[in-house]
Amino acid sequence: MVPAWLWLLCLSIPQALSEAQLAELHVEVPENYGGKFPLYLTKLPLPRGEAEGKIVLSGNSGMASESPFAVDRESGFLMVTRALDREEQPEYQLQVALETDDGRVLWGPQPVLVHVKDENDQVPHFSQAIYSVRLSQGTRPGIPFLFLEASDEDEPGTANSDLRFHILNQAPAQPFPDMFQLEPQLGALALSPKGSTSLDQALEGPYQLLVQVKDMGDQASGHQATATVNISIVESTWMPLEPIHLAENLKVPYPHHISQVRWSGEDVHYHLESQPPGPFDVDTKGKLYVTMELDRESQAEYLLQVRAQNTHGEDYTEPLKLLVVVMDENDNAPACPPRGPPIRIPELSPAGTEVTRLLAEDMDAPGSPNSHVVYRLLSPEPEEGTEGRAFELDSASGSVTLGALPLHASQDIPLQVLAVDLGGAEGGLSSTCEVTVTITDINDHAPEFTTSQIEPISLPEDTEPGTLVATLLATDGDLEPAFRRMDFAIEAGDVDGAFGLKWEPDSGHVQLLLLKNLSYETAPSYQLVVVVRSEAELVGPGPGPGATATVTVLVEKVVPPPKLNQESYEASVPVSTPAGSLLLTIQPSDPMSSPLRFSLVNDSEGWLCIKEVSGEVHTARPLQGARPGDMYTVLVEAQDAGEPTLRTAVTLVIHFLKAGSASAPALPLVPTRHLCTPRKNHGVVVSGASEDTDLADGHGPYHFALGPNPTVQRDWRIQALNGSHAYLTLALHWVEPREYSVPVVVSHNNRMWQLLVRVIVCRCNAEGQCMRKVGRMKGMPTKLSAVGILGGTLLAIGIFLVLIFTHLSLARKKDPDQPADSVPLKAAV
Ligand SMILES: *[C@@H]1O[C@H](CO)[C@@H](O)[C@H](O)[C@H]1NC(C)=O
Ligand SMILES: *[C@@H]1O[C@H](CO)[C@@H](O)[C@H](O)[C@H]1NC(C)=O
Ligand SMILES: *[C@@H]1O[C@H](CO)[C@@H](O)[C@H](O)[C@H]1NC(C)=O
Ligand SMILES: *[C@@H]1O[C@H](CO)[C@@H](O)[C@H](O)[C@H]1NC(C)=O
C-alpha cells in the first residue's frame, strides 16, 4: 500500500511547480531595426506595489557582455537598446526576476525568448568560382554530371535563403546554344536532350557556362552571384567487354582480377550486378574481381552488369554486360540412377528382352568427354564353361538385355554395372551402379507324382467306406505358390465310383479313399488311374507321364468263420472220471455247413482230447491233479476243412466235481436216485443205452436233451457225462419234494427217443440222505387190493419205525460213508 504521505507529496508537486515557473514569453525583434532606441518590446507581468527589490535580467551564455536588453523599472517593459543582427545571434534566452539585495527572489524568474526576425541582408555564394568537369561522350541527357553548390546565410527555410540556379550563358553556343540544362533548385547540371544527340559532333574544345545563383526563390528580386563551369568533352571509354572464361575450381588467391571497366566522366561510382548472383565485385577504379572458386555444375554462366553512376545513383549510360563462362573440369563421376525396386522379368523370356536401361548422369559439361559415359558389366560374371551370358550390356547406351543363357525363376540376381566417363579412357571417373533383377516364376512345370506305380493294395471286401487306401505325393517345380496348386482326379478305372480323392489345396499329398462297399463278385480288382494337373494354366509343354499314377486295388473275398452251436462250452466232471470218458460234443450251428476240423489249442495238462471230425471231447487220461471245485479252461479251434484260414475258437470250461459225490461214477449202474431239495451237489446218471438192440447198436455218442416242456426246462438240467451217459441235476435251488418223471430226449446215430427218468426229490439230512422212508416204496404202480394196500401200509409203518430207530442208532456212530438206510431207488423206464 502506498502510504498516505506519499500520495500527498505526489499531488502537491505539480502545484508547487506551476507556482514557481512562469510561462515563457515570446518576443520578436526585427533584424537591423532602423528606428528609435530603446525599443519597447513587451510589458512584463511584475507584481504591483512591490516597491522593494530590484530587477535582475540574465541571459543565455551566448549573450555579449553588454546586454542589448533592459527592463524599465517604472513601466515593467522589456526593451532592446540597439539594432540586432540575426546572422550574429538569431535568438536570445532571457530571465527576469525581482530580487532583494541579499539575493532573495521576490518574483520570477520570468523566462523570455527574444527572436530576431530575419532580413534578406546576405548574398548567396557558389562553393567555387570555377567548376572544371569532364563530360564523357555517351552520357545520357538529364543525368546530372555536376551538382553546383551555393550558400546563403540568411535564415534557412525562408525565401531569403531560397536559392535558384540558372545558366546565363554557354560558350561556345555551338552546335546549339542550350546544350545543357540546369535544375534550378538542386543545381544539377546535365546534358539537354538536344545536347546529348549532338555531343558527338560537338567541338572537341571545352564549353564554358556562366551560371547564376539567386535568393528569394522564384521572385524577381533578390541577391545573386555567378560562377563559371568549365566542361571538357572526353571520349567515352565505356566499351563492350569480351566474355570471360574462367576455369572451375581455380586455385588462385582471391579476389582474383578478371576484367576492368572505366567511365571517363567525372564523379563515377561503379556498381556490379550478377545474374544469377555470384561471387563478383567491382572496386572504385572499375576493376572486376571474382571472390571465390566457381563450380560449373552449380552455375555454368554468369551475366554481369556494370553500371557507371553519379553520386545520386543514376546511371550515366547503359550498363556494360559481361558474360562469365565457367569452364568444365572432370570433377564429377557419373552418378548412378537411384536404386529402385527389383526389376521383374518372367523366366524363360527370350534373349534380347530389355531388362533395364541404366542412365548414369555425369554432371560435367554435356557433350564433353568429361560427361561421356560408357558402361561395363561387372557382375554377374559369365560362368566358366557356359556359352553366352545371362545378361548383355550395351556399353554406349547402358541398355541391359537378356543374354542367350536362359534364366529360371530363382532368387534375385544383383547386376553390377560400372559407369565410366571420359568415354572409358584412362583417368576417367567411375561409379558402380546396382540393379536387382527378379526372375519371376511362370507356370512352366507340370506337377508330377513322385511314384507313378503303386504296389497292389489288397482290400478285404468288408473294408468300411471312408478307409484310407493310399496316399500319393506329387511335386511341382514352380516356385510361385499359385502355380504349385494342384488338382487331382481319378481318370480311369473307378467303374462304380467306389473311390474318391481328398487333398489339401497347398500340399502335394492326395488321399485315395474308399467311398462304397466293395464286392468281390462285382469287381475283384481295380486299376485306378490318378492324374494331377496344375490349377493355373500351364505354359509350355503339357504334362508328362509323371502326371499319372496307377493304383491297383485287389478285393479280397471275405468268408465268415465257422459258427458253432454254442458261444462257449461247459462240462462238469468228477475228478475220478476215467480216461476215455466222453465229456461233450462241439458241433457246428448249421449241420449242413461244410465239415469242420477241431483241435485243442492250449490243453497244457494234456487231460483232454478232441475228435478232429466229430468234435467229441474225451478225457485223454485220468484227471490226476485236478481238484474238485477247480475250473479248467481250454481253447478249442474249429477250422473249415476246405478253407483252413477260416477258423474260430471257443472256450471249453471244465468244472471238476468231487469224486464219490452224488454224481460219482460209483453209482452209474443204479437206475434210480433221489435228489435233495434245497439243491445239493447231487445228480442222477442217465444212461442213453437201451435194451432195444435196434436202438443201442452202432457206435457214436448219445446226445441228451430235456423234453420241450418249459417247466421241465426250468426245473432241470442235463449234461453229457461221457459218450453214453448223462447227468441230470436240479436247475432250481428249491423244487417241491415229490416224485418226478423227467422227460429226456436221447439221440443216437440219427435216431431219437424219449426216456422218462423217475427221480424222487426229497428233503435231506446233513449227510445228503433222504429224510423219508423210501425202502418199501414201489417204483411202479401195481394192481394191489385195498387189503393188500392196508396190510402193506401197516407193514411199511412198522418197517419205517424200525428204520428210524436203526437210523438213530447208526447216526450216533457218525459214519457217513456207510449209510445203512441208503436204499437204492429203482428208476422206471
Ligand atoms: C577551361 O579548361 C581548359 C582545358 O582544361 C583550359 O585550357 C582553360 O584555361 C580553362 N578555362 C578557364 C576559364 O579556367
Ligand atoms: C455296406 O456294408 C455295411 C456292412 O456290411 C452295411 O451295413 C451297409 O448298409 C452297406 N452299405 C451299402 C451302401 O451297401
Ligand atoms: C487257454 O486259453 C484261454 C484263452 O486264452 C485261457 O482263458 C485259458 O486259461 C488257457 N488255458 C490254459 C490251460 O492255459
Ligand atoms: C459212462 O459212465 C457210466 C457211469 O459212470 C459208466 O457206467 C460207463 O461205463 C461209462 N461209459 C464209457 C464209455 O466210459
Automatic annotation (TrEMBL):
It comes from the Eukaryota. Residues 56-126, 127-336, 337-449, 451-564, 565-667 form the Cadherin domain. It is a single-pass type I membrane protein. The chain crosses the membrane at residues 784-805. Keywords: Calcium, Cell adhesion, Cell membrane, Glycoprotein, Membrane, Metal-binding, Repeat, Signal, Transmembrane, Transmembrane helix. One of its GO terms (cellular component) is basolateral plasma membrane. SMART domains: CA. Residues 1-18 form the signal peptide. It is found in: Cell membrane. GO terms for biological process: adherens junction organization; calcium-dependent cell-cell adhesion via plasma membrane cell adhesion molecules; cell migration; cell morphogenesis; cell-cell adhesion mediated by cadherin; cell-cell junction assembly; homophilic cell adhesion via plasma membrane adhesion molecules. One of its GO terms (molecular function) is cadherin binding. Cadherins are calcium-dependent cell adhesion proteins. They preferentially interact with themselves in a homophilic manner in connecting cells; cadherins may thus contribute to the sorting of heterogeneous cell types. This is Cadherin-16. It comes from Myotis lucifugus. The lineage of its organism: Eukaryota, Metazoa, Chordata, Craniata, Vertebrata. The gene is CDH16.
